[in-house]
Amino acid sequence: MARYAVLIFEQETPNGVADIPPEVMRAHLDLPDRIAAEGGRVVAGLAFEPTSTSTSIRGDLVTDGPFVETKEALGGVFLIEARDLDHALALAALTPIVNGGVEVRPLVDFQVVEPS
Amino acid sequence: MLAATVRVTRDLDTAEESVQDAYVEALRAWTRDGVPDRPGAWLTTVARRKALNAVRGRETLKAKLPLLLEPEEAVVEAGDPEVIPDDRLRLVFTCCHPALSREAQVALTLRLVCGVATADVAHAFLVSESTMAARLTRAKKKIAAARIPYRVPSAEELPARVDVVLTVIHLLFATGHTAHSGRDLVRDELTGRALDLARMLRHLLPGEREVGGLLALLLVHQARRATRTDAAGRLLRLEDQDRSAWDRDLIAEADRLVVATLSAGPPGRFAVQAAIAALHAQAPSYPETDWPQILTLYDVLARLWPSPVVALNRAVAVAFVAGPEAALAEVEALERDGRLAGYRYLPSTKADLLHRLGRDAEAVEAYRAALALSDNAAEQEFLADRIERIG
């Protein structure tokens, strides 16, 4: 199995996580089971506070906000195991999305996540 | 041979090296022992053996190996190694994977499926050899790092994935057919490769109707290739071409494919384009073409494929069915839409309609706009000639 990061990009809403519709939230909570049912595995998942809470450091300059301003902001990342890119894309497509999309990125073999 | 070898290595670079090594060994062995009965099979067997050795050598580095070979695939199967259609099909789908950029898909297909040398691929796409080599390397790295699989897609993915492959083949043919720059309008090499690919796909995926549609479309274009320019190399419009010089056998073959494809179920965009091209090819002359039928087909095509280019071509049919005035209105609407800004066939179509309406001063202006957008020598000559005649 190969490992991929699934980066979730969503348009931000005023109240962040509180604005996520309940059915989308439920779908997020179900995601590991649905991915397992398709022969993959969720290794880890991270959800981010809105970019308004973010702070960036470039050289020695500290600024408020995200490192890169985009219409859809990085809202979270989860790591999956999949057989190949087609499998990974099929699993990533299960991610509940309101107003944005996901990016699938292969990981180099470099362990920084606690084995679960 | 590469297709059969990459199945062993699961890695394109190693497969290419193994094939090269096989040729080197052939030079030695065939000089010593004479050429074997089936040289292709001999080469494939040797290439796959070398690939297996290379893969086994790397097994010690197993943890680092990006693409592990599946055990059941390491067994070199019995039968004629030259005829493993699945392998070529897998290679096509890997090269045309939607996770790769269009330019990478086209370059990989030419290099790996058709076996065209990198320098020639670079030449076809008007970039330097080093640029093309870098493009191929990046694409192969992505295949390895992201683990783009080497397999035929599942039945439910197949139509969308076949569409990508057909688009790549069509682009190859179009690049060969109408070179954007340079003196040679037709690059026979590319059109021939594209036709071979379409025929191969038709053979390997007989159930995919759009494959038949694309093949028919390419056959009609190919049937007319000799008449697209005059003796001096100038571009000829469809209406000015010598229809008696069209290849009737190719047109008949295309027509059989179109009929078979259309009768098998709802058509896709390639089948409809082929039907339009076949109607043109069968018409005794340009004015005697079945324009109402062509307009109907363009309506179908516009629904399947809502593209402003389709709308522009539809406008030409409108001119014959409803008159140049109605067609001009549609072209001007497209002009306002803005998506075709920089597309040279928009002003040239407009110029033609204006000329037919007797508005020659405006027609010349539109031909000048088209001339400014064209970088193809044959097209430039054609447009300059039109300006001279009308102006």
What does this protein look like?
Chain A is of the alpha+beta class. Chain A contains two helices and six strands; from the N terminus they run E-H-E-E-E-E-H-E. In chain A, the strands form two sheets. Chain A has a four-stranded antiparallel sheet. In chain A, strand 3 (55-58) and strand 4 (61-64) form a beta hairpin. The longest helix of chain A is centred in the first third of the chain and has 16 residues, at 22-37. Chain A starts with a strand and ends in a 10-residue tail after the last strand. The model of chain A has no long low-confidence stretch (mean pLDDT 91). Chain B has 391 residues and is mainly α. Chain B has helices spanning 2-9, 12-33, 39-58, 71-74, 85-95, 102-113, 118-124, 129-145, 158-177, 188-204, 209-223, 248-263, 269-282, 291-304, 308-322, 324-337, 345-356, 360-373, 377-390. The model of chain B is unreliable at 60-83 (pLDDT under 50). The A-B interface holds A 2, 83-89, 104, 106, 108-109 and B 63-64, 97, 99, 145-149, 153, 157. Chain B: Residues 93-143 form the RNA polymerase sigma factor 70 region 4 type domain. Chain B: This is RNA polymerase sigma-70 factor (ECF subfamily).
